[in-house]
Amino acid sequence: MTRATSHGRTTYGFLHTFSERRRVHLASHELQLATQGRKPSRAPPSKKLRLLRSPACAGEIRDGLGGLSGTERSQESVSRLWHVCRLVSILAMQPPSPLPYFAWMVLYVLLAGEIARRWPFFARERGATVGGYNVPIEGLRGILALSVFLYHVALTQVYFQTGQLGDVTRFFEHCGSSAVLLFFFVTGFLFWSKALRVGPPRALPFLGARAWRIFPAYFLSVALVVLVTAARSDFRLKESAPHVAGEVVRWCAFGFLGFPDVNAIPNTILVNAGVFWTLKWEWVFYLVLPWLGWFAHGRRVFLLAGLLACEYGLSVATGRHGGMAQIFSTGFYPGMLSAHLVRSKLGVRLAQLPLSGAIPVACLAAAVMLPPKSLLAIPLLWIAFTAIAAGNDVFGLLRRSGLVVLGRISYSTYVLHGAVLFVGSRLLNRLVPIAGMSPFVFWACLGFVGVVVVVVSAVSFQFVEHPFFAGFAHSPIDLHPSMSQEPVELFASGRREFADGAHGHCTALWIATQQWLAKKRLIGPSRVTHASSRRDGF
Question: What is the 3-state secondary structure (H, E, C) of 70-93?
Answer without folding.
Answer: HHHHHHHHHHHHHHHHHHHHHHHC
